[in-house]
TrEMBL record:
ATP binds at residues 30-37, 147-150, 176, 184-187. This is Pantothenate synthetase. Beta-alanine binds at Q61. The active site is at H37. Keywords: ATP-binding, Cytoplasm, Ligase, Nucleotide-binding, Pantothenate biosynthesis. Catalyzes the condensation of pantoate with beta-alanine in an ATP-dependent reaction via a pantoyl-adenylate intermediate. It comes from Clostridium formicaceticum. (R)-pantoate binds at Q61, Q153.
Amino acid sequence: MKIITSIDELKTIIRKEKQNGKQIGFVPTMGYLHDGHLSLIEKASIENHFVVVSIFVNPTQFGINEDFDVYPRDLERDQKIAEIGGANIIFHPTIKEMYPNGYRTYVEVEEITEKLCGASRPGHFRGVTTVVAKLFHIVTPHRAYFGLKDAQQVAVLQKMVKDLNMDVQVIPCPIVREADGLAMSSRNVNLSPQDRKTALILSKSLAKAKEIVAAGERNAEMILIQVKKTLATEPTVIIDYIEIVDFETFERIDILKGRVLIAIAAKIGKVRLIDNIILEDLPSCI
Ligand code: PAF
């Protein structure tokens, strides 16, 4: 497995692979890979002949007071994990390679980017769509794999690909969790041991919501009351949002029906974490 830092070099390699009839799978990441990333790389390796994993902590998707500087980085460790997953190349460009002096072009998806994480992190999705659009142009993959922990990111990228007629299939993949339920995230390493325990309340609250829905509750407000009650058992958690939205439009809903996303974002210690569940094919009552 090779580590490539130059856009031109990567494009030349991809061109040759495509001339030889190879299908290209792509896993964009910001590094500090975990088993969630590994599952994406493994799936990409099964479904494609040649797999590129990008590792780039993208500055344009971080706000000024966010955690760009302390975002975990460990290329050597990432190399081992990507290799286990079957990646052929790690693309690890510098910031200057991606955004040279005078860079002025941005990609923006409207509306769904104004809700949930978009509302609390202004400019975040503009940074995500810009970097992913650039990466898609560089890698020209047949398929690109994203984890559903960032469910809104997946929806935003699917919209970008559709609206800009990009020739790539965005493949959403299930959330991978630790044995105790915590959704895997590169940011988990920045949790103190106590905060790591506290963080479990996110998946517990979502499990509570799932249980209430399974028991027949369809009123969003009633479900939110119970979720907030569960979250309140850990008073140090600072909730950013808890929302129940339609998974297509990301609009808030009053009554659960069809495909629904229950999403939480919260600060635990210094770390902002997100988690969600997607409830499929919900009849309006049971
Ligand atoms: O999900 C991530 O790690 C990032 O948002 C992505 C898609 C790699 C873009 O920087």
